[in-house]
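Shipment paperwork, digital attachment
Item: protein structure file
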Amino acid sequence: MNKNKITLSLTAALALGMSTNALAAGFQLAEYSATGLGRAFAGEAAMADNASAQFRNPAMLTYLEGTQVSAGAIYVDPNIDVKGTATTPLGDFDTQADDIANSAVIPNFYISRQLNDQATLGLAFGTNFGMRTDLGTDFLGSQFGNQAEVHTVEINPNLGYKINDQFSVGAGVRYVMAKGHFGAALPKPLGGLPLKYMEGEDNAWGWQAGAAWQINPTNRIGVSYHSAVKLNLTGHANGIAYDKAYAVQGKMPLTQYAGSLPLELPASAEIASFHQLNDQWAVHASINWTDWSSFKKLQASIPNMPENVEHIKDENWKDNYRFAIGTTYQATEKLALRSGIAYDTAAVDEAHRTQTIPETDCTWLSVGAGYQWSKNLTLDAGLTYVMAKKAHMLEKDKEHPMFGQFAGTTSGDIWLAGVQASYRF
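Attachment content:
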């Protein structure tokens, strides 16, 4: 497998995945199924609609009968803008970057196989982290970071075990493949040349575990935990900043320089509930936590540079919480309607917000539907509108005051649309 590639920005931000800013906190993704999308992913650790349930809580495999296959995709269409004032030695200039987050399709695939009345195996293919932003060099703050892209793909085998009629447990391993890039460049009026750029890749292991308590036939609680995954994104770096540092050593600059960036995908946990109120109505809710406070700084290793280890930027993020509540209405024997609302708290304060990951509080409004096409085939669809709260930011480099600073705001919204097909054998 080719060594993945990852970009480092000059002062920039980090990230893995496809967080077109604010799909979940930081660069975390929530989009693992269209079924869950239709209810704003409320109550996921206690839900077992189809084989996708194992991605959030492997214990929910015990609620799936026979062999089930589920596949789908979610289309993400973000509209995120950054604007403000660049302060330079030549004066103050208004500047703006529109639609900095690229659209993307997030696919998924799941399969479950019931071994006996107690044990069920599962296999999941999806992603928990991702991001892609590009501010260009027309933006007059590009020296603080103008592009960031990371993709992760996760292969996740799981086992669910039913202890008795009330309690189930589950666990699985996570193999995460990551690649991406981060970069910074001089603004176009100063030449637009790459200032610092690095790309790399790595693969690493993690794990997940969960449990479910069937309190009675109509009420259930589920809990799940995903471990942190430690990556060392290895590849190469280039840019005029590295060339200058190399020349100071009396050496001819190289086309590129070997480098790596340690990066930890944070641990997360969820507690969720499901309540069947009557034959038609059900309510589900959840609270999610992500250990973003573990993300303190970015520090790269560039062996050919004078000090080998290069401090990129202090991040000082904080833990994030997500609150969601949703409903399911069984309109007919075959048609189920879903809705949900969720609130994501930002994983970063104003003092540490960056333009390449303009993280902010978000509100989700979701609707969806499931249709049982036949005895074995169910089709699901979901639609979500995410409102990103307008937030302020201040970018500057204490070590290079000649870069000035950028003071501005980020704002925008995101549309998500997903489809899913599930088949039972």
